Amino acid sequence: MRALRVLLFVVVILGGLFVAADRVAVNLAEDKAADKIRSSQGLDKAPNVAIKGFPFLTQVAGRSLQEVDADLGGIQARAQGRTLRIDQLSAQFHEVTLNSDYTSIESAAWATGNARINYADLTKAAGADVKVTYAGEKNGRSQVKISPNVPLLSQLDVTGSISIVHGDTVRLRADGLPGMCKVLPGCEAKVRAQTDHDWKLEQLPGNLKLEKVVTMPDGISISASGKNVKLPG
Questions:
Q1: Which neighbouring-strand residues pair with 82?
Q2: Residue 14: predicted pLDDT
Q3: Are both 19 and 75 inside the same structural domain?
Q4: Do 158 and 149 meet the contact criterion of CB atoms below 8 Å apart?
Q5: CA–CA separation, 128 vs 55, rounded Å?
Q6: Which one of 66, 114, 147, 193 is CB 3.0 to 4.6 Å from 131, fit for a cystine?
Q7: 222 vs 25: which has the higher pLDDT
Q8: Residue 36 domain-assigned?
Q9: Is 159 exposed, middle or buried (0-12, 13-18, 19+ CB in 10 A)?
């Protein structure tokens, strides 16, 4: 019985040491991956990276990680000479494969992501004192209210739709303009110059493709996904 107790004690100690070593290894790997993502994506600071699954060391031995999550925080996207700030950007990579020398991530079988943009940043990106606010959904389409700044037309508000095009671009379009604007020379062109915009997001991790946008009271939420994607780092 004493020998059995000693054996159990040794097993517990070794198990504890293995868990500790495993957690140290995963923390180092997360820091390294975060730094590589920062440099490859041109970020101001390293993102938060979490490698899921236990034990980590056995996953590394098999060159396959169960899941890697990356929270990039806020980033800036350039389009039409203006900057569109993405308030939150996160991605989850599943069935991740390491390269042959175990030093970096090669690809992920599939991935999902989400981006959040608030209306204040949409307003700033639209420029020319245009204001963009929440307008709910209509017939399954996410809508916003756009208030352009056009001389001689006070308190002009139009309903606009937000959609995804080409898998990487957020599109804002006025659904229609008031009849009075259509009869004033040059009015429609001036209004649409302020209401119609395309913002191409080129900093999506792993070349994820944008899929759907939903308007919410505090901003818009954009979902993304991809298969056989490459994960920076």
A1: 79
A2: 42
A3: yes
A4: no
A5: 54
A6: 147
A7: 222
A8: yes
A9: middle
Alpha carbon distances (Å) from 166 to 112, 200, 212: 17, 9, 12
Structural domain that includes position 62: 1-101
> Is 74 part of a structural domain of the chain?
yes
Whether residue 41 sits in one domain with residue 91: yes
Count structural domains, the chain.
2
| Residue carrying the six token digits 């308030």 | 87
* The model's pTM: 0.77
**Do 187 and 126 belong to one domain?**
yes
Look-up of token digits 């899921």: 52
Residues 6+ apart with CB under 8 A from 58: none
How far CA 231 is from CA of 33, 56, 109, 166, 179, in Å, comes to: 10, 18, 10, 21, 50
- Cβ neighbour number for residue 124 with a 10 Å cutoff: 15
Boundary of a domain, candidates 45, 66, 101 = 101
